[in-house]
Amino acid sequence: MVETNRVGLDTENLMKLWDHGVDALYVLTGRRSEAIGGELINWTLVERIADRFGRWEAEKGIRIPDAKRATVLKLLYLRFSESARTSDTAIDEMLNLAA
Fold this sequence. Notes:
Radius of gyration: 20 Å
Oligomer: single chain
Structural class: mainly alpha
Number of helices: 6
Order of helices and strands: HHHHHH
Number of strands: 0
């Protein structure tokens, strides 16, 4: 056990804790993983995608159903997150597919 120094707190043991539902980031940092995750999201990128999403819907007179909306936003975010840059054309193509 980690508390008794019989087992070290290495990556393998942290992953075992995670697999059993323990918040490993909390163990390491004292902060919940949900809070840390929110800090890792590029909110400016999310705003740019959401803005284009809204403009596309207004232009087309179409509203993507809520069930699809979250999935499409997630996929668009994942598509653009590495470069932190968006493309109206790529967003429009995804929305055309979703509509």
